[in-house]
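Anyone up for a design puzzle?
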């Protein structure tokens, strides 16, 4: 008890009953899901969006080509996608988004920067076929971020 955790039911949500869903959601620091999963979570967990935002510290809903929504303490931040010219395969994009977001979070970056880092990390996966065929260095990641957004230099802390 008292240990911060993230809950991402993903495709397993269809196998979960109300008790299991509520056991994961209630008290989670982070709840990650896509639009479809969020609707299932509300239905099977017998929640509405306000209930969920009162139960979790951060609600992160990915919206495919529409970006993502991050809700924290009643404040919603909309994050755009990082544009990809030739999308190849969406498999693993949500995992990459989480990795980028959480990297920013644990470096104490703003919610906006965290969300953009998630969006950018997801773009690398979307450009490749397969879930583990992408790669980048930290300097490449920072450079690519700055092609679209101004981080005001905070990403330099990732360089060590």
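Challenge accepted. My sequence:
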């Amino acid at each position: 008890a008292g240990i911060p955790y993230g809950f991402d039911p993903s495709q397993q949500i269809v196998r979960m009953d109300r008790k299991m869903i509520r056991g994961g959601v209630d008290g989670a620091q982070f709840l990650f899901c896509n639009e479809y999963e969020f609707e299932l979570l509300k239905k099977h967990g017998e929640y509405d969006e306000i209930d969920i935002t009162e139960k979790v510290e951060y609600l992160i809903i990915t919206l495919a080509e529409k970006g993502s929504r991050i809700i924290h303490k009643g404040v919603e931040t909309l994050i755009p996608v990082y544009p990809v010219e030739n999308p190849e395969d969406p498999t693993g994009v949500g995992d990459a988004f989480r990795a980028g977001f959480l990297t920013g979070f644990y470096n104490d970056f703003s919610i906006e920067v965290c969300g953009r880092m998630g969006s950018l990390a997801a773009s690398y996966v979307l450009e490749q076929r397969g879930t583990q065929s992408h790669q980048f260095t930290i300097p490449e990641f920072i450079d690519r971020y700055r092609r679209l957004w101004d981080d005001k230099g905070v990403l330099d802390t990732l360089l060590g």
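A detail worth pointing out: The CA atoms of residues 97 and 118 lie 4 Å apart.
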